[in-house]
Specification:
alpha+beta; Arc Repressor Mutant, subunit A; 28% strand; globular; 17% helix; Neuraminidase; four-stranded antiparallel sheet
Length: 444
């Protein structure tokens, strides 16, 4: 058994108590009024914190620690509702082990006398895919010198889970999460001067967001709030006025979605609603200031990318609570209501990517980062003309997730993110190379 990495949350204790009774995931979901997929997420967190691999081991460990018991008729705790393996003989307890056990017992007594403290500590220690606060941090990842990539002026403060949008004059880094938590920061980068300036703060601090440019304004829907929940706000930034305003809210609070603009409308795909991963498709019309629901994706996912090409909106990668996805599908708004439907499949990514950055330039999709559960050694590009993905270099190997990515002129800008710690980097990638050919001279 590995060392306990931290106390369980109140919800995880509730799930563990039901696991000890032999309840199935469906039964637990009905009892706690949550989805079966959320039960799976809680179980994975419980296994990780307790250092176990199965429901039986988790039950045994919970009984051993006194967290879970099944009262018998005599008032004493009965055996848990699972078959426990025979206990192997243990070697004699030495003095230091006895002292350790006494100290552990005293700690359990103290915690039992302060349940409110226990619960608050459990909530603080709970790690989820929707925040990096509390994640163990490692040494900064070494940057590789690779072709076409160059350093630009870094963010004023390291940040991940932000929106990055270009209006072809400047880049706008909006919201996200810093080491201090969810932020309402807006910082503006001017590639001509290679410098950052502050902008008007967002009305609602949020993370796990994306943004799109429509009619010279930046639209940022939803997001994760400072309390860990989701919001349905839609807030719009006017770069000329350096001001924010609210518009019609989403039908549901959602974060970590895919977002794209096409034909003057905004399309939102999937995400997380605070309790479960979603497969929804929502369309926002800025003229009517209204949302409509369209045909959903085939399966729920969050931390995905979306970008519009000529043949439709490409929805790429993502994370479903268990694994990173290599899925690539295309949504064609003009096919809504037809027999074939608006969704079709395309060539998959070389490997799954969750928390990726995605942007469009010309007839190509550019994907940067990911690496949630598997390390990454390259980025990828999709050519609509050939229908194939190709690999490209990356300055960060391993994990580089929840960054901001935007196309600006001939370059891509990859800003912030997480790679063992919050990143302040601002990397520019020369996507298009123009060559001027010398003209011949007369008489030559």
């Amino acid at each position: 058994m590995t060392e306990d990495p931290g106390p369980l949350s109140e919800r995880e204790i509730e799930v563990l108590e039901l696991v000890a009774t032999g309840a199935t995931n469906q039964q637990i979901a009905r009892a706690l009024v949550i989805s079966p997929n959320t039960v799976k997420v809680h179980l994975r967190n419980i296994y990780e914190k307790l250092g176990v691999q199965s429901r039986t081991e988790a039950t045994m460990e919970a009984v051993r620690r006194g967290w879970v018991s099944v009262p018998g008729e005599s008032g004493e705790a009965a055996a848990p509702a699972v078959a426990l393996p025979p206990i192997a003989p243990r070697p004699p307890i030495v003095r230091w082990q006895r002292a350790y056990m006494i100290a552990a017992a005293l700690l359990i007594v103290l915690l039992s006398l302060a349940p409110g403290w226990w619960k608050s500590r459990g909530q603080a220690a709970r790690l989820t895919p929707f925040t990096d606060v509390g994640q163990p941090q490692t040494a900064p990842v070494a940057r590789l010198n690779v072709p076409r990539w160059a350093n630009s002026a870094p963010l004023p403060e390291p940040r991940s889970r932000l929106a990055l949008v270009s209006d072809e004059t400047k880049l706008y880094a909006i919201g996200g999460e810093t080491a201090a938590g969810v932020t309402d920061q807006v910082t503006i980068y001017d590639p001509r001067s290679n410098g950052w300036l502050p902008g008007a703060r967002k009305l609602t601090p949020v993370s796990n967001i994306s943004g799109v440019l429509l009619d010279n304004r930046i639209y940022v829907p939803g997001g994760t709030t400072a309390t860990g929940g989701t919001t349905n706000v839609l807030e719009i930034y006017d770069p000329q006025a350096d001001a924010w305003e609210a518009r019609a809210p989403l039908p549901v609070g959602v974060a970590a979605y895919g977002l794209a603009a096409r034909d003057g409308k905004m399309y939102l795909f999937g995400g997380w609603d605070g309790a479960s991963y979603r497969a929804d498709t929502y369309v926002y019309d800025p003229i009517l200031d209204s949302w409509t629901r369209a045909t959903p994706m085939a399966a729920p996912r969050a931390f995905l990318g979306a970008g519009a090409l000529e043949d439709g909106i490409y929805v790429v990668g993502g994370y479903d609570g268990e694994r990173e996805l290599d899925t690539v599908t295309v949504y064609d708004p003009t096919a809504e209501g037809t027999a074939a439907g608006p969704w079709s499949d395309r060539a998959r990514l070389s490997q799954g990517r969750g928390g990726l950055g995605l942007t469009v330039m010309g007839s190509r999709l550019y994907v940067v980062g990911g690496g949630w559960t598997e390390p990454l050694a390259f980025n990828e590009q999709y050519d609509m003309l050939t229908g194939a993905w190709s690999r490209s270099e990356t300055p960060l190997v391993g994990a580089w997730r929840n960054l901001g990515l935007a196309a600006h002129g001939q370059k891509l800008y990859a800003v912030g993110g997480w790679s063992g710690g919050y990143l302040a980097l601002n990397e520019e990638y020369l996507a298009l190379i123009r060559q001027l050919l010398p003209l011949g001279t007369k008489g030559g």
